[in-house]
Amino acid sequence: MRYCINCCIHLLPNDLHSQCFRCRGPDHNNQKCPVCRGENKIPLYTDRRQMKWLAVLEVRTDHCESWNGFFCLRKGKLCSLMFGLIIMTLVMVSYILTGAKHGLLLIPSPFHYGAFASNPSLMDNESLSDMKDYYQPSKMNISYVKDYPSIKLIIDTITSKIEFITRQRPDLEELRKQEPHMFSVIPNKFLPNSKNPCWYEEYRGNATADPYATNSYALYSKRFRIIFDYLRKVFWNHLYHYKGKHYRLRCLPHFYIIGQPKCGTTDLYDRLRLHPDVRFSAIKEPHWWTRKRFGIIRLRDGFHDRYPVEDYLDLFDLAAHQIQSVLQSDAVKERGKRNNIIIGEASASTMWDNNAWIFFYDNSTEGEPPFLIQDFIHAFQPNAKLIIMLRDPVERLYSDYLYFASANKSAEDFHEKVAESLQLFEGCVLDFSLRACVYNNTLNNAMPVRLQVGLYVVYLLDWLTVFNKDQILVLRLEDHASNMRYTMHMVFQFLDLGPLSEKQEALITKSPASNTRRPEDRSLGPMLPTTKAILRDFYRPFNTKLAQVLFDDAFLWKRT
Questions:
Q1: Rounded distance, CA 425 to CA 451, Å?
Q2: Is the dihedral of CA 438, 444, 450, 451 positive or negative?
Q3: What are phi and psi of 95, to 5 degrees?
Q4: What are phi and psi of 68, to 5 degrees?
Q5: What's the DSSP call for residue 352?
Q6: Is the pLDDT of residue 359 over 70?
Q7: Fewer Cβ neighbours under 10 Å: the N or C end of the chain?
Q8: Range 428-431, long-range pairs (CB < 8 A, 24+ positions)
Q9: Nearest to 104 by CA among 415, 423, 444, 418
Q10: Which residues cross the membrane (predicted)?
């Protein structure tokens, strides 16, 4: 833009400025006027900035100014356009991220996300008015009530796809081909004078060799090194010497506490280990059958070297030393008595975690694992005993969430994660069998909460394909909490343990509960009533089947 130095009037590009008396007076001569001749003028381009009165300078007429104004105008419009596009992009990204979480996307997700309807309706068997005393909803909670009808449609779809089909059990030769080393280490017969499955194995190392130098549990975990330091010191003293050779006693567990997580397995473990005839592995949860033998420490960290079966057997050396002392005693040698000490193992992943199969075994056409954990345990220990502790799957899932979630824990966040997990599970069962989805590693890692762990009957039926029903004891945490003495007696009877003195029994049954909810988690309160109703609907058909299999309606968890 241009200004007259004489009168500070804004000039248009082609303005002759005839009204200025300094430039166009009555005696004005264009030839003599220095202003009109262009002398003593300083050109100034103000670039749209407002000029101060004392700083005004005369601007020379320049025909290129019109083009500069045009380009400046275009530059301004271009900047505005770019800014608008950036804002629009941010809004769209926010929409996509928010819509994906709440099921509002217009484009369907590969996991079959569905949009939630906005029409509220009453819940099956449990109305919102009945829950007001239990939980006072906030404004945010009211919006979650609207989710229920649409999530109910997802659950109905899942329910319609449920089929409990008996799996085909693999034969022994197929198992041998998959794990030849394991079958070369573990014999098919055990010592007849020991209640616990044990055998003697020749030790070829010398007195200075470290028998635990390559044990993966000792190498990868600092907290286990103290245990192995002690085992190194006493190892040579517990070798059995016969005809110039050295033998070590090897043992497998007599019984397994196989599940489920957040169902009281730690408490059961702590009480059972107080029994004088019960020993456990040096580590409470080795997770060898499900993870370590595949080289999995944490799935998110990828795979490490596979833990050989020898590393697993090392965990029972402490118990094996005590069993050997009994076997070498005069009572066993001379009177024909046998060892009654039994060993247990309490990895709560054993019942359900078969996620690693897809990386090591040939995939089947149906997407189901061709081999499961129980196939191999049964191949070596057909007489093993299994203990399962279960809990209302709805409460188990919330406890699981509170235990494993690291940040931003809340009842509202739990609700959102449940909704997302249900949508993912629905997407799977639309294309695959129930068993394929339950053992689907990709799906299980994608779900924000572990819905599949609460599908107890799916896992139990698969264990019953290889083990007899009288080899499996199924308990409820609710019964254990209300009458601990009764449940512990059931366990003692199941394991055929000897009688206890009143003092021993009191020590076992009156000890405080183990692994209870952390104080900071207790302060979060219960889950939302809507979330509980959703989960009750989801788990209902599975609980119904479980109650039928066990002939016990308590496993319906109608009142817990």
A1: 9
A2: negative
A3: -65, -45
A4: -60, -40
A5: T
A6: yes
A7: C
A8: 428/111, 429/157, 429/158, 429/161, 429/162, 430/112, 430/157, 430/161
A9: 423
A10: 78-97
What are the residues facing 440 on neighbouring strands? Answer: none
Least confident among 303-307, 463-467, 471-475, 535-539: 303-307
Straight-line distance from the first to the last Cα atom of the chain, in angstroms, rounded to the nearest whole number: 82
**Which DSSP letter does residue 194 get?**
B
> Cα separation of 45 and 501, whole Å?
104
The percent of residues in the chain predicted with pLDDT above 90, rounded, is 55
Taking CA 24 as the corner, what is the angle to CA 21 and CA 25, rounded to the nearest 5 degrees? 65
Is the separation of the CB atoms in 314 and 308 below 8 Å? no
CA dist., res. 87 & res. 32, Å (int)? 58
CA 74 to each of CA 14, 65, 320: distance values in angstroms, whole numbers, following the listed order: 21, 14, 86
Q: Long-range contacts for 352-356 (Cβ within 8 Å, ≥24 apart)?
A: 352/259, 352/260, 352/452, 352/453, 352/459, 353/287, 353/290, 353/291, 354/290, 354/439, 355/290, 355/299, 355/439, 355/441, 355/444, 355/445, 356/290, 356/291, 356/294, 356/296, 356/441
Residues 38-78 pLDDT 10s:
544 444 444 444 444 333 334 344 444 444 444 444 566 67
One-letter amino acid for residue 429 of the chain? V
Q: 172-556 maps to which CATH number?
A: 3.40.50.300
Q: Which residue, among 56, 31, 26, has the nearest Cα to 41 in the 3D structure? A: 56
- Tokens found for residue 3: 């200004």
Cβ-proximal residues to 92 (8 Å cutoff; 6+ apart), any chain: none
**C-alpha to C-alpha distance for 209 and 235, rounded to whole angstroms:** 11
Report pTM.
0.74
Question: Over the stretch 249-298, which tens digit does the pLDDT of each residue have?
Answer: 999 999 999 999 999 999 999 999 999 999 999 999 999 999 999 988 76
SS3 content of the chain, % helix, strand, coil (to 5): 45, 10, 45
Query: In this structure, which amino acid lies at residue 67?
Result: W
CA dihedral in degrees (407, 408, 414, 418; nearest 10)? -70
Q: Which residues contact 281 (CB under 8 A, 6 or more apart)?
A: 253, 315, 316, 319, 343, 344, 345, 346
Which residue in the block uniquely carries the two structure tokens 């004392």?
54
For residue 149, report the phi and psi dihedrals to the nearest 5 degrees: -60, -40
DSSP letter for 115, please.
P
Summarised one tens digit per residue, pLDDT across range 373-419 is: 999 999 999 999 999 999 999 999 999 999 887 778 999 999 999 99
Query: CA-CA distances (angstroms) from residue 399 to 263, 359, 411?
Result: 9, 30, 12
Fill in the DSSP letter of residue 136.
Answer: -
Percent of the chain with pLDDT over 70: 72
Instruction: Put residue 408 in one of left, alpha, beta given phi > 0 → left and psi -120 to 50 → alpha.
Output: left
Residue 240: helix, strand or coil by DSSP? Answer: strand
